[in-house]
Amino acid sequence: MSRNLVIQAKNLGLTFQTNDGPVHALKDVNLEIGKGDFVSFIGPSGCGKTTFLRVIAGLEEPTSGQITVNGMSPDEARRARAYGYVFQAAGLFPWRTIAGNVKLPLEIMGFPRAEQEERVKKVLQLVDLEGFEKKFPWQLSGGMQQRASIARALAFDADILLMDEPFGALDEIVRDHLNEQLLKLWARTGKTIAFVTHSIPEAVYLSTRIVVMSPRPGRIHDVIESPLPRERPLDIRDTPEFLEVAHRVREGLRAGHAYDG
Amino acid sequence: MKSVLPILTVVAAIIALWYGAAVWLNSKWVYDQAARAGVEVSFTEVVKQTMNQERPKLPAPHQVAAELWKTTVEKKITSKRSLVFHGWITLSATLLGFAIGTGLGILLAVGIVHNRAMEMSVMPWAIASQTIPIIAIAPMIIVVLNSVGIQGLLPKAIISAYLSFFPVVVGMVKGLRSPQVMLLDQMKTWNASRAQIFWKLRLPASMPYLFASLKVGIAASLVGAIVGELPTGAIRGLGARLLSGSYYGQTVQIWAALMAAAILAAALVGIVGLIQRITLRRMGMAQ
Fold this sequence. Notes:
The complex is a heterodimer.
Chain A: E1 5-18, E2 21-34, E3 38-42, H1 49-56, E4 64-69, H2 74-79, E5 83-86, H3 98-109, H4 113-126, H5 142-154, E6 160-164, H6 172-189, E7 192-197, H7 200-206, E8 209-214, E9 219-225, H8 240-259
Parallel strand pairs in A: 3-7, 3-8, 5-6, 6-7
Antiparallel strand pairs in A: 1-2, 1-4, 8-9
Helix pairs in contact in A: 3-4, 3-5, 4-5, 7-8
Chain B: H1 4-37, H2 43-50, H3 61-72, H4 83-114, H5 116-131, H6 134-147, H7 153-176, H8 181-189, H9 194-229, H10 238-247, H11 251-282
């Protein structure tokens, strides 16, 4: 791998101490994510995919191994505002308008006011939400709220986008649409995206690389390089290449499960 | 408009019950008078005589209404017999106490939410403070402050604040802690400072809780101000009207003062409710 490495994890482990004894959320995770990659993490619940994303974000502290983000520790990267994080729920602030929500990280980071307006306008355009600036979150559909949430994560132009099942709560039609938009956005911005999902088609459709994880202890079972081209219309999902990759992912998930009976 | 009918029904029922109770409670005096004079009275005569006694056990609603009218509209508001005058005295102590109590309550809540030591040390005292009957502690506050030369409005306001800070502390602690973990994590990903988390997340999120507390708090403030007027020798204020009324057996005056206090409380809670609606709507949080 000669590309620029953005995220590097070596023998990463994370053990939570609970009342029922230690829980190995992550064990011996080795992974390198290059600049401009779209990496999906897929696996059953408890496989540590969200935990891994939170470790990258500096929201959880690993208990063993090393990890660097942009060559720094995750906490330093967080302080340097290296990434935008999109949570499972849109998590918009109900007392702020859509524009106000997108502006929030910019206010916190101390961007000049004029630039704030400019950036809000730009990213709302990027997610197709022009004209909704003055609406409050509850006036928007779930899909639109999640788009606003993505716009907010993009607003300060971090190179990395961490997404934790951002479309998990949406119906399939909306999800297809947002997947397509996300790919376009990725192509246009060249960001590095780490994406957690439960859905095999979603993982295969979006990613350049798919990381299949398995639970107890959470670890990487398989890493699949996608042979699909970067340009992907929605009907690519009916091609043999697509189905082939999906099959490999499914096999990987099944094997990962069989491992602990 | 749909709510008018049920409200009127309840009001009518209360007035009917009140009249019934007035007849029942005041009839004894009528019978006693009749027995003393050695005459028989018919039931209709009894009812008639229970409606207009000078010192009834329970004044009839129209007597209280007439007294209210006489002491508000017909008296100059500077007169010592004007309920508007006394109401204003009580109201000013209420508002000052409410402001002190709310400010103190919010400050304590902010401290409790941000500081573990304060959470452990302040909350038990705040709860303990509310278990002491205010009627027991009010005279001591008045006496102690009087001995250091503070009299008039402030001692009453302090008693009022003593009652109103508590609901604000409880509500604000809950409100400031109401943001979900996800939103707090979100702020962390932007490397927000504690102050930013407070001003941009915790404080706005606490607003619905604050207003719920303020409604309880302002009613408690009024109670505090009235109680604070009792030990001062009953010179001015609604509390004074209550006390002097009971000294001289002026039940009509007592009930008029009670009514005035109730109307004042309803108006204050209503105003807080209105501010709540306007604020939350402007924040986009109204339902």
